[in-house]
Amino acid sequence: MFRRDLRRLGFIIALVVVAVLALVVNTIDIGIGSVNFQRGDKEGPLGLTLGLDLQGGVQLIYEAQDQNVTKDQMEGVKDKIERRTNSFGVTEPSIQILGSNRILIQLPGVEDVEEAKRLIGQTAQLEFKERICAPAGCDETQNAGATINAVGDLTADATTFPVSDASVFREGETLLASLEQMRVTGTDGEANTITVLRGYRHTEATGHANGASISRFTFEDRDIGLTGELLTRAYAGTHATTGQPIVHLEFNGEGAKKFGDTTARIAGTNNRTAIFLDNEELVAPVASQAILGGQAFIQGPDFTFDSVRTIAIQLEGGRLDTPIVVIQEQNVDATLGEDALDKSLVAGLIGFGLVALFMVLYYRIPGVTAVLALVCYIVLVLLVIKLIPVTMTLAGIAGFILSIGVAVDANILISERTKEELRTGRALLGAIETGYSRAWPAILNSNVATMITCVILFWFGSRFGASAVTGFSITLFIGVATSMFTAVVISHTFLRLIASTPLSRFTGMFTPVPGQVITAGAGRRSHTQRERN
Amino acid sequence: MDFVGKRKWFFTFSAILILVGVLSMTISPRFKVGIDFEGGSALSLTFAQAANQDNMRAAMADLGHGQAVVQRVGDTGFLIRTTTLEGPELTGGLSERELIEERLTQEFGTIETSELSAVSEAVAKETIRNAGIAVAVAALFIMIYISYAFRLMANSLRLGVAAIIAALHDVVITLGLFSILGKVIDLEVNAMFITGILTVVGYSVHDTIVVFDRIRENTARLISRDMGTTINVSIMETVGRSLTTSITTLTVIMALLLMGGGTIESLLYTLLIGVAVGTYSSIAIASQLLLVWEQGGWLPFLRRKEAEPQS
Predict the structure, then answer these.
(1) Is this complex's ipTM strictly greater than 0.90?
(2) N or C: which end of chain A has fewer CB within 10 A?
(3) pTM score, two decimals?
């Protein structure tokens, strides 16, 4: 028995040490073969991901005005919002579809909710353009030439584009002067797509481009007046003979004419039809012949069933903007979020300190082992939270701290039972064993009841994107589940090991301070009184 | 201690608590309702220097938000409750929030922090409905679980029902006290309050199960043929644990509250009240209901009350 307990102790120590290590290191990155396991956040304390209420940011919930919106339409809206938020320079935006017609958007670190709404609210722009290539072919080279330095603010009127030619192009490059197009993309937090058609005309130039990198194009995209409204349908399918995934397109009369004219011009050449959604290229196919009937399909060697579906959804989303309205919004100031985090950590420490003090003073040795088990408990719960991973919100911390109460309860139940067994005159080790087995049904059943509540709470919260409610229920659930493990495995082992040492001679140290609880003995007296009545 | 013998006092005490709460709930405003349940916007601003509340109200009225509720928070903070503020897409150019902030900055100086939460009325209605469903479904599942967990006992369904009645008793009392506190200290009812209520249900049942488990064990050990005695002994044996656990839990909640609960303040108040009431009901209501049921229901119980003159 003693050896088995020692082995268990070794296991517990190893587990806790590994857990502490996994927590101290902010990011965990394990790659074994094709399995890649990455967890942890570079910024957050212990690598835990912090929710918006703790790090500041914006949360928005949109609802499609049309109740009968399709799943694909919602995917289209989600795709649109993803592209918009990426251009907003948000580090880790989270965009999820809730239920059938809602979208939850979380933008950590973003303070300007109105700007975010403006971006998200814009209607999507779907455009078909005619791509005219240089004789050498259509080529896009990333980071061609140098990087723009200290450009300053660019205005829409970019005729005074303040970048010297030398800084844009490499010396000695032979390019077609009239067909050069550059796209400047950068990450300085602003919308900064700058398209310059050198020697031809400036098409667009907005935002800052300090430190941005440049792509060089050897083609020009020309407007052909074919926009999303002229497309009547886009859907994914398979090729009738080859079975390859394709995207079907259907245009209305005007669209068919424009598409027909373009394909007639480009048929058999290097030139292409480039399809843009919000100025971002989706696909740019060539045409083998003029397509006049208004019905076409796009195929590609690297198309997959997933990629054609995505393209179809994007085309549909650009064709028909699904109107969405804000139904819930919340923004939290970053400084207030940090403040809330600090305060709740202090509260947790105070709470834990008081509980620990009470447990040790009142239950003595079982109290000490319970507190040790609680420390292990806290480490393990934090580990689970990090590994799943669960985003920590203020309410999540509250759920966690509350679960400490549940974990203490398991220890209290066991200590009380052990005390009773000792009073019946059992030997210490036997009393501990019986105490555990007697307390177990109550611990299990009461904790399952709490876990049922957590599941219902999670459902309730996720119905309308209340991350506070879901955060609370998840951490409370994890906490309650872990508490059963720590009470039964960890504190049990600690207690048995101590009972095997010379300390076990002081049986009194294993029961609560006498005279402070109404004891079982007193209870029995009262029922004899009742029976006499 | 004879807990079982005092059950009529417990029931009377609970009835009074419930009655007072229900009375408060019939007097308007029933609750101080947050935007989660009513819809609207709550803009929370802190200024660099102190600002006058009446001037703030006047400025809001000037902006066309005459109905806005302006509340002072601390020295430089203000909480402005108003109808849902329009976004930039409808007003064109600036959103209503930007217009408000611009005007207030002109008049009262720099705004240091600004937080907004807004909920549409349709969502608010849905939240109320979902909250009701959540409490009902939680109660049903817990009842089924308890009946299953104690399936070896006779009438195990009664245990489930009694535990849920006790939990609902806690919910009603907590609701009542919140209604009173809403009138006295402006305590708000919002989505976190519902979270609290559901947690209270879980906690109350947790406590009740511990007592029920002891009753199960003592019944199996046949410590007495009289159910009242068995229940009383079981309560006696678990009361120490119930009190210690709720004291430790309440300590933790108090610590969180003292640090300034922030957005989860109403959750913490709900738990503070609910945990206390939950502990009480596990001792004074849940097991006592079992006994009333065992002795033939409420009619014999009430008749017995008449037979035993109150001293």
Answers:
(1) no
(2) C
(3) 0.74
